[in-house]
Amino acid sequence: MSRINLLGILCLMTFTTLARAERVFLPRGNLFTPLLADPKEPRLSAYRVNTTYAPRKTIGASVSAGGEIGILRDENQLSNPQWQLGLSGGVFGEFDLNSPLTDLVSVDYSVGFPITFRQGKASIRLRPYHQSSHMGDKYLAQNLFQRIDLSYDSLETLLSIEEKTVRIYLGDEYIFARNPAHLKQQLIHGGIEARSPQPYHAGPWGSVWVVAAMDVKSWEEVKWSPAWSLKGGIEIISHTRPGESKRSMTLSVIYYDGFTPFGQFYSERISYWGFGVSFSL
Description:
Blueprint: H1 3-18, E1 23-25, E2 44-53, E3 56-74, E4 82-96, E5 103-112, E6 115-119, E7 122-135, H2 137-143, E8 151-162, E9 166-179, E10 186-195, E11 201-203, E12 206-219, E13 226-237, E14 248-259, E15 269-280
Antiparallel strand pairs: 1-3, 2-3, 2-15, 3-4, 4-5, 4-6, 5-7, 6-7, 7-8, 8-9, 9-10, 10-12, 11-12, 12-13, 13-14, 14-15
């Protein structure tokens, strides 16, 4: 099925459901569960990483601030499927902790307007978004890099199937406007996530789960060479009252190998491992 046909079907589903929906403004939570291991998923996080830009190695920090909020949702349980219109945004910063002044290496900004659908265990995220990337001034001056004014608009389509302990997802992206203009436009994206069947502890702060995830991206620009992102650790989910969305904190170890996901270094290969914390709001 072509992207145009899929987009047309999703738009038809949206307008058909709108006519009979019980619409809720600023709903709690999201119909499409955020991706656990994708390094560019908007979230609040901070990681200490040991990074290798061949042949150079350094210790750095990878931080992000962002997330997704629902703007309008159909909460009629008889609707098939449910839908939500939302707003997502994120800032992703990379710091070189080995430099004298802890230089900011690069920072990426993204903003998107996800349209999500859910029917039982299946969910779809259709997200048009914009990203722009910038290098840190001190890092640029000290390393004499020629800056690339990287920015693009992309359409992400992901299908996710969630069972009790395992989730799989698959989709792609199409970059329809980009600078520089020679950037290739196709990207394939998929992954798998797993969690323990039962919490290992349920105390006054919440329940504790063991989680693990793998995210894979393959981009035409780097000759389809895959980029692997792995994450494993524990997730603490807060206790909530009925109808409230769940908030969580994840303490995890991460590993990445592939084309650089950060800004204008996209053509370089990078590997890193580290540990840190992320929050789901």
